[in-house]
Write a structure and sequence with these properties.
Layout (H helix, E strand, L loop, with lengths): L3 E3 L2 E3 L7 H7 L23 E4 L3 E4 L9 E4 L3 H14 L17 H10 L16 E2 L4 E3 L9 H8 L6 E4 L6 E4 L13 H5 L5 E3 L11 E7 L8 E7 L18 E4 L12 H4 L1 H5 L8 E2 L2 E2 L2 H14 L3 E6 L4 H10 L5 E5 L24 H8 L12 E5 L13 E6 L4 H5 L2 E4 L8 E4 L5 E4 L12 H8 L7
Parallel strand pairs: 1-5, 16-17, 16-18, 18-19, 19-20
Antiparallel strand pairs: 1-2, 3-4, 3-5, 6-7, 7-10, 8-9, 11-12, 12-13, 14-15, 14-20, 21-22
Helix pairs in contact: 2-3, 9-10, 9-12
The structure holds iron/sulfur cluster (SF4) (2 copies) and FE2/S2 (inorganic) cluster.
Length: 475
């Protein structure tokens, strides 16, 4: 094991590591634009310079460690070099932070204040480039802000494999561009380049000029879009910055979704479907409990459902593969003894939607099939002959397969015609309104927390199930 000294500290390191990796593992900050822990080393931005005893300045990101290596990260020579590098990078940069979505989380801003702090030294007009270059339906590129670190290019080559992006021309006319007529729309992981771009050059169309990031906060969650169960951060408005008059729906809707790094599940990435969580969960809601299509109070609906369950001879329950571990456990404990149970696919792979792939995506478009099947088996979600009551929890079931005259109890979160046709309908909270855990296809359990309070007229499935048990009491 090589012995290495950084800033006077003797550090443990492994052969093959770089100075950057050892420093970061020991919480010694070294600035980096082009280096990213999940990408190959490009060594092009020069901001990571450190001073090596007996050798002078060197790039921390591509300097392999060796026995006896002594490094300093904060000498006068290092500070001068960082300042020069930042001055060079801002020579043609527009410094339009006032209208840039990256402001507040931009490495160029952060490093400028930490290591430069001086206005542009250029006496020549800045070189202009495309301010708004379309990279497809999801991303726009501001070439003036691009510092040509090549992170985005390497992502499409090394991680997503789409090979969509390249850099054309040379010097101060270099431009990131789609390669050979390809489109970022063909890359289901394209939006990761927005996160890893160290500046505000790659911008999400969905988030463009929607909010300053310092008005937002994050809640840790799990993407329900497929059986991978990627851990995510859901961004939403901070309570102290709630909007009072204009666009108040933004106080309780998702502003954006980013990966929550998790080596056990998704590493630092998610797919675009995970970014579009709002499209999955912010659909027209079913907010009123109903008995035979008539709106009633929740306790009346639960009592009617409880009586129907108690009186049924051969009841069938179709269990949701979107239920949390806690909800599935509650169903198993309180209702499974009364029912024949089968696990239902709430969502199915759509035409043109990727199935299993080399990176994250899974063909099973439900987050908790693993736990649901562990509890309720592999029985197909079909209605056996003689069934006299069907309880449908969640979405995705074809109600036309239920024989005429068989009563239904529907528990769901979204507006659907079958809600009003059911003997009883119970409105449930959605993913961003409740806490719980999902078990992904590899058995990894991840937690999600509520981002918003649920509407007063809906209930959490976990609290509903005990009240539906024949011996349970409504409240
Ligand atoms: S667009 Fe961003 S990630 Fe891509 S090369 Fe430019 S600065 Fe780097
Ligand atoms: S791979 Fe699956 S779980 Fe991960 S972000 Fe995409 S849809 Fe969500
Ligand atoms: S981070 Fe080392 S050269 Fe860019």
């Amino acid at each position: 094991m090589p012995g290495i000294v950084i800033d006077g500290r003797e550090l443990e390191a492994e052969g093959g590591q770089t100075v950057m990796q050892v420093a970061l593992a020991h919480d010694i900050p070294i600035p980096a634009f082009c280096w990213h822990p999940a990408l190959s080393i490009a060594g092009n931005c020069r901001v990571c310079m450190v001073e090596v005893e007996g050798r002078g300045l060197a790039l921390a990101c591509n300097l392999p460690i060796y026995d006896g290596l002594k490094v300093h990260t904060d000498t006068e020579a290092v500070r001068n070099q960082r300042k020069l590098t930042l001055q060079f990078l801002t020579l043609n940069h527009p410094v339009d932070c006032g209208i840039c979505d990256k402001a507040g989380e931009c490495l160029l801003q952060d490093y400028h204040y930490a290591h430069n702090g001086s206005p542009s030294t250029s006496i020549d007009p800045k070189v202009h480039a495309t301010k708004h270059y379309s990279l497809g339906s999801r991303i726009v590129l501001d070439n003036e802000r691009c510092i040509l670190c090549s992170r985005c290019v390497r992502f499409t080559r090394e991680v997503s494999g789409s090979n969509v992006l390249g850099i054309k021309h040379r010097g101060d006319t270099s431009l990131v561009r789609p390669a050979e007529g390809r489109s970022l729309d063909d890359d289901p992981y394209s939006d990761n380049v927005i996160d890893i771009c160290p500046v505000g050059a790659l911008l999400s169309r969905a988030f463009l000029h929607q909010s300053r990031v310092w008005y937002l906060t994050t809640t840790p969650s799990v993407c329900p879009g497929c059986a991978r169960g990627c851990t995510i951060d859901v961004w939403h408005r901070k309570p102290e910055w709630r909007l009072q008059a204009v666009a108040t729906h933004r106080n309780h809707t998702i502003a954006r979704v980013t990966p929550h790094e998790n080596p056990a599940v998704n590493g630092p990435w998610i797919c675009n479907k995970g970014r579009d969580l709002a499209a999955l969960v912010e659909r027209p809601r079913a907010l009123e409990p109903m008995v035979k299509g008539e709106v009633v109070a929740m306790d009346q609906a639960l009592e009617a459902a409880r009586q129907a369950i108690a009186g049924a001879q051969r009841p069938l329950a179709l269990v949701s593969s979107w239920g949390s571990n806690e909800e599935l456990d509650a169903f198993k404990e309180h209702l499974a003894p009364r029912f024949s149970c089968a696990v239902k696919e709430d969502h199915r792979q759509q035409p043109n939607e990727p199935g299993d792939d080399h990176l994250l995506l899974r063909a099973d478009k439900n987050p908790n099939t693993t736990r649901a099947r562990a509890l309720f088996g592999e029985t197909p979600a079909a209605v056996p002959e003689g069934t006299d009551l069907v309880l449908v929890w969640g979405e995705g079931f074809d109600f036309d397969t239920i024989p005429d005259g068989v009563a239904t109890i529907v528990l769901g979160a979204f507006d659907a015609p079958e809600n009003g046709l059911a003997a009883v309908f119970v409105p449930l909270s959605i993913h961003t309104e409740r806490a719980g855990h999902f078990t992904n296809f590899e058995g990894v359990v991840s937690a999600f927390a509520p981002c918003f309070p649920p509407p007063a007229t809906v209930a959490d499935a976990e609290t509903v199930f005990p009240q539906l048990a024949p011996q349970g009491a409504t409240s």
